Amino acid sequence: MRLGGPIMEGIGTPEEWVYLHQKYGYRAAYCWIHSISELNTKKDFINAAEKHDIMLAEIGAWCNPMSLNPEERKKAIEHCKEQLFIADESNTKCCVNIAGNLGDKWDGHSPENFTKKAFDMIVETTRDIIDSVNPKRSFYTLEMMQWMYPYDADSYLDLIRAIDRKQFAAHLDIVNTINSPLKYYSTEEVIKDCFSKLGKYIKSIHVKDITLSQEMTVHLSEVIAGKGNFSHRCLVEEVRKLDENIPLMLEHLSTKEEYIEAGEYLKKFF
Asked: What was the pLDDT predicted at 9?
């Protein structure tokens, strides 16, 4: 199995980078290259990752390519293309972004996010990003979200079929799709549904947890892995059955200690 997460410490050399990943039991890593100009200066790190069997799992684009502001949308799409290019050049498994929001907040919700207009815009934009870069090794992926496409396995399949590009694949963040009490108490079924429908497309997975409060009406909160109701045992079992090289990436924690705690919890299922 390949666990990964951010390194919450200063890194000066490729040897330090490798040491810290090995120290925390990480066999996968986030790609930390922030611009095309950095590619040449980071080649020693890329080579060190390959030499020590540390998979570069994903690089984030994290912007809104569906912005209602034309200049912001153009800038975001160019950023996605640059990040996908970096992913391909560094042999990072995938570039991941959200599909985008037809509203004010870049990663927020709006009434048009589930419309045909939104779906068609995602298809057009994603094709443009992939066709412009023409990646050979890496894949462009969209993180599953609770209030935009793709919001579950079926909507992801719809996008995969509509986009129709070999280098478009799936990034799983299953906790993001747990958006009701029914799903909260059925996480194993949700996990198995994702793997049964998206299995051959999955390139990277975010790992976290979720709790449901007793407060009206419905309040769901993201928490550190092991502190909620998500079935990580089932997740690891599905990864093991499909491909043990699919990276499981910790995220959204605040301290090194929290990442260590979450990592040790997950390792119990490996």
From this structure: 86
Rounded CA gap, 197 and 166, in Å? 17
The radius of gyration of the chain from alpha carbons, rounded to an integer in Å, stands at 18
CA 157 to chain centre: 16
Give the whole-angstrom CA distance, residue 64 versus residue 87.
19
Pairwise CA distance, residues 88 & 94, whole Å: 8
The pTM (predicted TM-score) of the whole model is 0.97
Task: Evaluate if residue 4 carries a pLDDT over 90.
Answer: yes
E runs forming strands in the chain: 2-4, 28-30, 55-60, 94-97, 139-143, 168-172, 202-207, 209-212, 220-223, 247-250
Give residue-wise pLDDT tens across range 183-208.
999 999 999 999 999 999 999 999 99
**Cβ proximity of 229 and 185 under 8 Å:** yes
Q: What is residue 215's three-state secondary structure?
A: coil
Collapse the DSSP code of 140 into the 3-class scheme (helix H, G, I; strand E, B; otherwise coil) and give the result.
strand
Residue 11: pLDDT above 90?
no
CB-based contact 229:187 (threshold 8 Å): yes
C-alpha distances in Å from residue 87, one per residue of 52, 136, 140, 247: 19, 10, 9, 15
136-166 per-position pLDDT tens digit: 999 999 999 999 999 999 999 999 999 999 9
Residue spans of beta strands (DSSP E) within 36-164: 55-60, 94-97, 139-143
Token pair of 267 as six digits = 């390792």
| Beta-bridge partners for 58 | 30, 94
